[in-house]
């Protein structure tokens, strides 16, 4: 287990004040440092899904905080369903199917890391998803409006540059995903 995960369980602060607790996010202060926390989930999973044909599966959706469409790796919350004790792998499979329409034959955990350590206590678990099988259309659930992209690994950087030239934002975690996908070739 990574060292920072062990350190996360150690309490060094004595003064924690919760300033706000909403349906999905909260704001707390610890030793004069204000940061956000999730009120409806126990973690976040991000998947690096690669087809047997060497295509990276990406998703695109409008993100209100940045007022733009964003191309991302498929991702989602852990424990935000009726199963509050949901495992990381169960959440990864559920989110992958919901967002992309693909089911993974296997997951390999790549990294557990903070998402934005200066602003949030959120911990992200990133998985390689292989042995993909198309089981649905994807596109998300409820009011999600997700577009699924299949991008050849050998031309992904150029494809992403073209999307940015169109004014679409790109989540930088994709580049980490390309690194891990390339290391498995």
Explain what the structure shows:
The chain is 22% helix and 39% strand. It has 185 residues and is α+β, with helices and mostly antiparallel strands. A hairpin with a 4-residue loop joins β5 and β6 (68-72).
What brief labels describe this structure?
185 residues; alpha+beta; 4-stranded mixed sheet; 4 helices; 39% strand; globular
Give the overall form: globular
Helix percent reads 10-25%
Structure classification: alpha+beta
Cα-based radius of gyration, to the nearest Å: 17 Å
Strand content: 35-45%
Order of helices and strands: HEEEEEEEHEEEEEHEH
Helix segment tally = 4
Residue windows where pLDDT falls under 50 for at least 5 positions:
1-11
The pLDDT mean sits at: 90
Q: Count all strands and give the number.
A: 13
Cα end-to-end separation: 26 Å
How are the strands ordered across the major sheet? 7-4-10-9
Largest sheet: 4 strands, mixed
